[in-house]
């Protein structure tokens, strides 16, 4: 039997020696491969068929061209359409800023309201980058954020031997017994442009909101917890000065955060310190002191009430209305007011006080608004005292500290050497408050003896006594040649420093105190213009500026009043207990409380921003400037001084 069969040859897939290849190319490129753009060569474009098509296309009308192109696109593959889109997109781009006049282009950039947007614009093209570099764009942005070069710019270094005021300072002889500290390093160079100013101010603003870096934390061991209380503090761009109840004064560098000096000399607790920043200029409204005071120690016999005997050339007065003691004089020797003590100083100390500086007859008008490193205010308000406790100098080469305390002495210190320049006596009880005038070597101190005394801290003499209070003088503040003092006799008095005249007496009933109210007085008439309410307990902290009044109370509340209408602008429940300290500027409000917290708020809205430090047992003082915040607190039973840096890294 025969049979027919058909057979099929099946080739296993694994044995195949050839791979499958499609006959046509897919329309879309592979997802794993980058698309290849076909670029015809110049020879292909110059071929006669293409030239014929171009000639025919150019001869068509606009409507016919559009129909021709639509028909052509309908017959193209996806790859061909992709190729055409890559060629068409650049042709459709148009730089509208480049086509506009430069004035209009810069005017458009002024509407940009955020620096991040302006930075992105600079990345578009070289032309746009050049437009963004123009000063007008960043100046407008700085104005929108209220950045002022005098307030938010980097600190300007002082000149070495002379400055713009024309004051020539002599070389300081190196004959001191203590090693001299080097000049503080120049933190930052001044901004050369509005863009540099804005970048610096913006980075500082962001650091305040997000948290800067802790520059240094100091823990000071004390035998008695009460003796480690920080009673007073002053801060400028170079130094942080803290007075303690244990009769010591600590000086820290704001650039490194290190403890560089401990000023020892007071016999009892220090209650008031003022930091006089280096540099500056003498106030042109007041005559400069004579450059040489030789012979100042000779005293006329007609002015003395007792016989004097010379001890190593220093006259000794047995008694008198006001005695000044100097640590460089022989033991027990005293000099009668008003001759001064500057003739006792060696040349190095005279140079530290700028006693031999050559002042011009008429200082330039710009010197009145010269800005020291401790304060950046200018203009009419520059005579106001600095809330951080610093004072602009009168041209001296280094910083000085003026302090007072329970030992009734006013002491003048040279920060760079740590030496006492003057020890001035006159008060008969504890000195509770002290201020130094801007650009003048004049200090005003208030005491529990119910008097204020005006001192010449450059020449070491007492100028006058301001008497009138019937109780302890607890606080004072200065503005120009005016000083206002508050006393436990329930009065405030306004004085003329140059004449000693009492201009006004404001009678008050615990204003800003126990009656939970804040009273506002007219300095011209002495009348109470407003009584502000809102606190439910003692009002213990207050700061006043031309635009706002901020108060803090024992109820933990902080109230902000807008001036001049005195309406309540912001109410803040800042702390769980009493507010111990507060300070604000045009951007931020910093408060501290007995609950051990230091908090940062937006001064415009009152919104909580962050806690500046970790909680502690209690916080005594907080002081800050635009780049630095110093916190004086107690932590783990020890006095802690913490410095936080907010400047750009």
Percentage beta strand: 25-35%
Largest sheet features: 5 strands, mixed
Tally the helices. 12
- Low-confidence blocks of residues: 1-21, 156-191, 288-338, 360-381
Q: Walk across the major sheet and give the strand order.
A: 12-6-14-15-16
Give the beta-strand count.
37
Question: What brief labels describe this structure?
Answer:
649 residues, alpha+beta, five-stranded mixed beta sheet, four-stranded antiparallel beta sheet, 12 helices, disordered N terminus
Provide an overview of this structure.
InterPro entries: F-box-like_dom_sf, F-box_dom, Quino_amine_DH_bsu, WD40/YVTN_repeat-like_dom_sf, WD40_PAC1, WD40_repeat_CS, WD40_repeat_dom_sf, WD40_rpt. Residues 14-33 have a biased composition (Polar residues). This is WD40-repeat-containing domain protein. With 649 residues, the protein is an alpha+beta fold. It has 12 helices and 37 strands. Strands 12-6-14-15-16 form a 5-stranded mixed sheet, with no helix packed on it. The chain has a 4-stranded antiparallel sheet with strand order 1-37-36-35, with no helix packed on it. Strand 14 (400-405) and strand 15 form a beta hairpin. The termini are far apart. 37% of the residues are buried.
Fold blueprint:
Elements: H1 42-45, H2 48-58, H3 62-74, H4 78-92, H5 96-99, H6 102-109, H7 115-122, H8 126-132, H9 135-144, H10 149-152, H11 194-210, E1 213-220, E2 230-235, E3 239-244, E4 248-253, E5 259-264, E6 270-276, E7 279-280, E8 309-311, E9 314-316, E10 323-324, E11 335-336, H12 347-352, E12 390-391, E13 394-396, E14 400-405, E15 409-414, E16 420-425, E17 431-436, E18 442-447, E19 451-456, E20 461-467, E21 473-479, E22 482-487, E23 491-496, E24 502-507, E25 518-521, E26 528-532, E27 539-544, E28 548-553, E29 557-562, E30 567-573, E31 579-584, E32 588-593, E33 598-602, E34 608-611, E35 618-624, E36 628-635, E37 638-645
Helix pairs in contact: 7-8, 9-11
């Amino acid at each position: 039997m025969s049979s027919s069969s058909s057979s099929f040859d099946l080739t296993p897939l694994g044995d195949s020696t050839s791979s499958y290849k499609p006959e046509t190319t897919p329309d879309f490129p592979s997802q794993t491969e980058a698309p290849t753009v076909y670029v015809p060569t110049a020879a292909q474009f110059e071929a006669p068929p293409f030239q014929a098509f171009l000639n025919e296309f150019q001869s068509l009308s606009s409507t016919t061209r559009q129909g021709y192109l639509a028909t052509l696109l309908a017959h193209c593959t996806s790859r061909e359409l992709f190729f055409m889109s890559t060629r068409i997109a650049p042709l459709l781009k148009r730089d509208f800023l480049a086509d506009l006049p430069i004035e209009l282009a810069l005017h458009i950039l002024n509407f940009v309201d955020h620096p991040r947007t302006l930075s992105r614009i600079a990345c578009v093209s070289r032309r746009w980058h050049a437009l963004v570099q123009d000063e007008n764009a960043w100046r407008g942005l700085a104005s929108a954020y209220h950045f002022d070069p005098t307030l938010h710019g980097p600190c300007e270094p002082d000149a070495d031997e002379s400055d713009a005021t024309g004051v020539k300072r002599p070389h300081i002889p190196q004959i001191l017994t203590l090693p001299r500290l080097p000049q503080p390093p120049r933190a930052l160079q001044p901004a050369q442009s509005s863009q540099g100013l804005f970048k610096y101010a913006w980075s500082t603003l962001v650091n305040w909101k997000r948290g800067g870096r802790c520059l240094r934390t100091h823990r000071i061991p004390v035998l008695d917890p009460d003796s480690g209380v920080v009673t007073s503090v002053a801060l400028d761009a170079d130094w942080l000065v803290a007075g303690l109840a244990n009769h010591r004064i600590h000086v820290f560098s704001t650039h490194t955060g290190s403890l560089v000096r401990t000023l020892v000399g007071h016999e009892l607790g220090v209650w008031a310190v003022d930091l006089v920043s280096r540099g500056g200029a003498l106030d042109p409204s007041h005559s400069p002191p004579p450059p040489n005071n030789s012979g100042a120690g000779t005293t006329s016999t007609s002015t003395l009430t007792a016989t004097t005997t010379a001890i190593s050339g220093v006259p000794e007065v047995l008694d008198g209305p006001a005695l000044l003691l100097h640590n460089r004089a022989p033991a027990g020797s005293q000099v009668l007011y008003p001759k001064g003590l500057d003739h006792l100083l060696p040349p190095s100390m005279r140079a530290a006080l700028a006693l031999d500086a050559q002042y011009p007859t008429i200082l330039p008008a710009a010197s009145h608004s010269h800005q020291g490193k401790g304060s950046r205010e200018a203009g009419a308000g520059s005579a106001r005292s600095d809330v951080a406790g610093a004072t602009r100098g009168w041209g001296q080469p280094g910083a000085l500290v003026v302090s007072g305390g329970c030992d009734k002495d006013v002491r003048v210190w040279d920060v760079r050497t740590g030496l006492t320049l003057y020890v001035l006596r006159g008060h008969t009880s504890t000195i509770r408050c002290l201020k130094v005038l801007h650009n003048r070597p004049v200090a005003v101190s208030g005491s529990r003896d119910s008097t204020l005394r005006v001192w010449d801290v450059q020449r070491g003499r007492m100028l006058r006594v301001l008497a009138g209070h019937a109780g302890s003088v607890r606080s004072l503040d200065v503005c120009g040649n005016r000083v206002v003092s508050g006393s436990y006799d329930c009065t405030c008095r306004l004085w003329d420093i140059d004449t000693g005249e009492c201009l006004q007496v404001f009678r008050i009933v615990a204003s800003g105190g126990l009656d939970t109210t804040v009273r506002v007085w007219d300095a011209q008439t002495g009348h109470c213009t407003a009584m502000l309410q809102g606190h439910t307990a003692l009002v213990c902290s207050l700061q006043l500026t031309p635009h706002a009044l901020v108060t803090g109370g024992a109820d933990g509340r902080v109230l902000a009043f807008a001036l001049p209408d005195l309406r309540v602008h912001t109410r803040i429940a800042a702390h769980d207990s009493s507010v111990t300290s507060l300070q604000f500027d045009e951007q931020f409000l910093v408060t501290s409380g007995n609950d051990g917290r230091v908090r940062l708020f937006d001064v415009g809205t009152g919104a909580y921003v962050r806690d500046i430090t970790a909680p502690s047992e209690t916080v005594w003082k907080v002081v800050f400037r635009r780049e630095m915040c110093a916190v004086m607190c107690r932590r783990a039973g020890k006095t802690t001084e913490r410095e936080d840096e907010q400047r750009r890294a």
